[in-house]
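Possible regression after last week's pipeline update?

I re-ran a chain I had predicted before the update to compare outputs. Posting the input and the new output here so someone can diff against the archived version. Not blocking, just want to make sure nothing changed silently.
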Amino acid sequence: MEIDAPMQVVVSDMTAFWAAGKYWELTLYMDLFNNEIVAHAISSKKGDRSTYIDGLNSLIEKKKEGYAGLGMILHSDQGAVYSSKDFNEILPAYSITRSMSRAGTPTDNGAMEAINGWAKEEMFSDFNIGRSGDVPKAVREYIDFFNKARPSYALGYLTPVQYKERYWRPRLPAIVQNK
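New output (post-update):
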């Protein structure tokens, strides 16, 4: 499948880490068009299902902002929450189609697995999240950096936001572009 516009295919996964003396679970939702982290949720409770649902609700709000009438594929692994009735009953109302990796095949969600690794490495080495007094704030700051300031080789050394802006620029009416 060729991804040629924002919010066509979004991938998700949860990652866990220890920071500031606590265990944290972080669920990320990433747009495969430009590798932008479009939604996330974090919790310091082990096994907190709300990170998936809260993240999904944030994704749905983002979808409503400019992509409401468009279909979307949401890809994840076969984790218990992603497979749950609660999670999957939400999707059809927002034109979101479910896609899941094959059992025991993390490479089916390779882009998200890679981002989880990079994000944790950069949050600890560059953002010093391990000693942060406010881990959720540090995660938000990292995501802002990742989306708006971190150039990506895969995007021609543009940031995810710059890449998306380049996509939209020729599609905007001339009057809006000249402001």
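Follow-up from reviewer: compared with the archived run. The helical segments are 50-66, 80-83, 85-90, 110-125, 135-148, 160-168, 174-177. Marking as no regression found.
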